[in-house]
Amino acid sequence: MNNIIIEGGHRLSGSVHISGAKNAVLPLIAAALLPEGVSEIEETPWLTDVCYMCDVLNYLGAHTQYADGILQINPASLTDCTAPFEEVQKMRASFLVMGPLLAKLGEAKIPLPGGCAIGARPIDLHLKGFEAMGAQITIGERYIEAKVNNLHGARIYLDFPSVGATENIMMAATLAEGLTTIENAAKEPEIVDLANFLGAMGAKIKGAGTDTIRIVGVRALHPARHTTIPDRIEAGSFMLMAAITGSELFLENVITSHLQPIIAKLNDAGVRIIDEIDGLRVLPSGRILPVEIKTLPYPGFPTDMQAQFMAFLALAAGNSTIRETVFENRFMHVAELQKMGADISVNGHTAIIRGVPKLQGAYVEATDLRAGAAMIVAALAAEGETVIGQVDHIYRGYENIVGKLVEVGAKIREEQSAE
Ligand code: EPZ
After folding, report:
1. pLDDT at residue 333 is higher than 80
2. Looking at the predicted structure, is the pLDDT value of residue 119 above 80?
């Protein structure tokens, strides 16, 4: 893996274009298996995770083609219902093909998606939904198999508003017989984006974005063309990069309403943000004020912004607390931030961040995607040079992150790692 090198202490300026959302486009790609015909997804970010998802679809017999931000997906030759072991192990979101395969082929054989650095990440809620819809589930050593003759609608209550389970069940329900009701559904903007894409294909879906989603199955879906919503987590990450360096930065291609929980916390921390017609402007901020953060399902503060915000609060004028309620092990970035001089202590799911006057550049690692983004936030403000290792994690979710930061004045470069 390569390293990213950052020389801290430089202001950013100008504007940055926010890419399409990783966590929207991955389910959109899976959904493109459902119709008869070629669908197109615009503003598809060219990310490692998008490549992995396309590999899974190609392995299943579908064809994908990417050019100038547009991904074409042709499911016509979808024949295989067994997802490839390596790809699913690399990216758990591959599990999102299960719903479409069950709906289209009546069977699916998916490798057990591994946990990852941030937690065990079970799939019990996905399986609960598919069983309620009539699927027989067999859990083997390495694979999960699901078979069904006629997928039928069901009333499904999610014990936790799981994003992936809501998406997987919603996709399966579009071609099931009758009405499916998902209660305690996830309300993230990415759920609404998926529902809009499925609706454009002729699916009958109501309530996406609320905690109850109703889907009436149809006999077949037709292809559609869809534009991915902007990535609210990339936008939030860039807002923190501007705020921690005291910079003015303009973000284009954002949907402000998706960013409310992040903007609210940035305002509490003393960061001024202007909602302009064609984007958001972060104004140069002075002292960083300490805040209390608790991660929650949308519309609460997003867990995917927790690591980046912790890096920012390391330089606050006072003590902050962050409580992580969504994942059980999402503090891997604490040890890396401590290497840079951050004063953080962790007690269970709560971190106490005692602000320090400055951070020092160091050799740190991107332990996972968002921890890697946190290292960039910290490194941009640290004194001296920071070397970030394991950067492939970062490229999973941030399109052209080095190029975008160079464009706005950061002293950042990538180099081959010695190993
Ligand atoms: C999605 O993951 C996102 N990934 C994650 O983003 C995000 O952190 C997460 O939602 C929460 O917002 C994609 O959309 C590709 P969940 P997902 O199912 O669907 C438990 C990033 O950094 N759970 O809402 O896997 C689970 O253990 C990534 O971009 C069950 O118990 O998240 C976790 O504690 C990281 N049983 C909680 O729910 C299940 O069947 C949230 O998981 C499913 C989930």
Report:
1. yes
2. no
Q: Which residues pair with 274 in a beta bridge?
A: 281
Pairing of the two strands 319-323 and 279-282? unpaired
From the alpha carbon of 160, which atom of ligand 1 is closest?
A: 38
Cα angle 210, 281, 289; round to 5: 85
The string of pLDDT tens digits covering residues 5-57 is 999 999 999 999 999 999 999 999 999 999 999 999 999 999 999 999 999 99
Pocket of ligand 1 (CB under 6 A): 22-23, 26, 93, 119, 121-126, 160, 162-165, 186, 303-304, 326-327, 369-370, 397
Give the active site residues: 116
Binning pLDDT at 50, 70 and 90, where does residue 376 land? very high
Could you tell me the distance, in angstroms and rounded to a whole number, from the CA of residue 121 to the centre of ligand 1?
7
DSSP string of 48-117, one letter each residue? HHHHHHHHHHHHTT-EEEEETTEEEEE-TT----B--HHHHHH-GGGGGGHHHHHHHHSEEEEEPPP-BT
Query: Residue 115 pLDDT > 70, yes or no?
Result: no
Give the helix/strand (H/E) hosting 355.
none
Query: CB within 8 A of 347, min separation 6: which ones?
Result: none
Beta strand extents in 283-356 (DSSP E only): 292-294, 319-323, 343-347, 350-354
Residue 62: Cβ within 10 Å count: 22
pLDDT digits (tens, 9 = 90+) for 170-225: 999 999 999 999 999 999 999 999 999 999 999 999 999 999 999 999 999 999 99
Tokens coding 182 = 């998902």
What confidence tens digit (pLDDT) does each residue in 210-227 have? 999 999 999 999 999 999
Report how far residue 309's alpha carbon sits from residue 78's, in angstroms, rounded to the nearest whole number: 42
Distance (Å, rounded) from C-alpha 395 to C-alpha 384?
Answer: 24
Cα–Cα distance between 170 and 77 in angstroms, integer? 23
Instruction: Give the integer Cα–Cα distance in Å for 365 and 387.
Output: 8
Is residue 216 within 8 Å of 178, Cβ to Cβ?
yes
Cα(116) to ligand 1 centroid in Å equals 11
